Amino acid sequence: MIYPKSVNKGDTIKLISPSNGTNKTKLRQLDSAIEVLKSRGFNIEEDKYTRCSNNGISSDSFSRANELNESFLDSSKALIAVSGGDFINQIIDKLEYS
Predict the structure, then answer these.
(1) Of 24, 58, 74, 80, which one has the fewest beta carbons inside 10 Å?
(2) pLDDT in tens, 12-28
C-alpha cells in the first residue's frame, strides 16, 4: 500500500477544480473553509478555475486537465477538489501520470 506523506503546518494545500468550480452561492463556504485551513497553519493556493462555474463546469476539458497536470508537479503537499466530479471523466485521457 502507498501512503501519502503527512500534511504539516506551513505546507501548501492547493484547491483545484478538475470538474466544477465554486458557484456564487457557495463562495462564502469556500472562503470559510480557506480561513479554517489557514488558521491551522496551512498555506492555501487556488487553481485558475476554483471560483469559476458555468453550467456546472469550471472550464473546458483541456484547461481543466492542464491545470490538474500542473498541480501534480508544483510544490503543493495536498490537492483538494472544491466541488463536483460529474465531469472529471472528460479529462481522464488528458492526464499525465508519469
Answers:
(1) 24
(2) 999 999 998 888 889 99
